[in-house]
Amino acid sequence: MEGIFYMELNLAVRGHDFYREDTAERLAEKIAETGLKNIQFALPFSFPSVPSQFENMNPGMGNYYQRIFSKQDIQITVLSCYINMIHPDLNEREKLIDKFCSYLRVAKAFGASMVATETGCVDEEIHYTEENFTEEAFEKVVESVKKMVTYAEKLGMTVAIEGGLNHPIYSPKKMRELLDRIQSPNMQVILDVTNFLRPDTVQNQKEVIDEAFNLFGSEIAAIHLKDFVVENNLVKPVAIGTGEMDFEYLLKKVSQEKPYLHLIMEETKEPDIPNAIAYLEKINK
C-alpha cells in the first residue's frame, strides 16, 4: 500500500509586501530572514525610482537583480508586469503591450520563467464594472493576449494570466474560454481563488477551487494565497490565517494535483509574514 504523500510548501512572497527598502540587497536579506526562497518581483512597486518602462528594460538589469537575490538563495519565480491590456486608448494599449513584451524579453536574465499580468479593464483605471463582462471586452483581451503570447513563443517564455472580478476574465469558466482561444502552452494561469469570490459566494470557495482545477488545473503555473473577510458587503484582503479562506482545502488540492507548485503569499504584509508561514505549515501537516 502506497504511503500518504506529504508536500513541503513551496512558498513565495511578493517583494512589495515588505516595507520599501532603498536597496535590493536589504530586501533580499529580509526575505531570506523569513526562510523563503522565492519572490514575485514587481520592479516598479519595490523600487519606484528605478526606470522600468519599455525602453528601460535590459539584460544587465535582470542580471543585477538575479545576482543579488541569488546571493541569498532566492529565486525570482515570477516577474510582474501588470498592465491594462484593454486600455480604452488604443495608442496607450499598444504601449502597454510593448512594455509587457519588453519584460518577456529580459525575464530570463532575471531568472524568471514567466511574466504575470491581469487582464485589465474597459476604463483607464482598474475597478469593478459589469462592462468588463461583455463579449466585446473579452474579445479585446483575446486580441491582446494573442500578441503577447505570440511574442512569448519566440522567446520560449510564459505569459501568466491572472483572472478576477475586476477584469474580463471574471470566472474560472471565462479563463478556460481564454485558454481555448489562445491555444498555446506559452499561456499559463496564476490562480487567485479570492479574486473570483463575491460576498454572496464566499461560502462556495471549495466549489470554486474544484472548478478551477477541473477546468485548467494542468495550466496553473502558480497560486496566489490571499485571505479575506467580508466587510461592508465587500471581500476585503487580510493577512493569511486571520480570515475566511479555506487554505487547508486548497493546500490539499495542490498536494494532490500540483506538488511543489509555487504558492505566492499576497496582501500579507511584512510584520505578518512569519505568522502566515507558521500557519500555512501547521495546516499542511
Automatic annotation (TrEMBL):
Keywords: Isomerase. The keyword Isomerase applies. The keyword Transferase does not apply. It comes from the Bacteria. This is Sugar phosphate isomerase/epimerase. Residues 30-280 form the Xylose isomerase-like TIM barrel domain. SUPFAM superfamilies: Xylose isomerase-like. It comes from Jeotgalibaca ciconiae. GO terms for molecular function: isomerase activity.
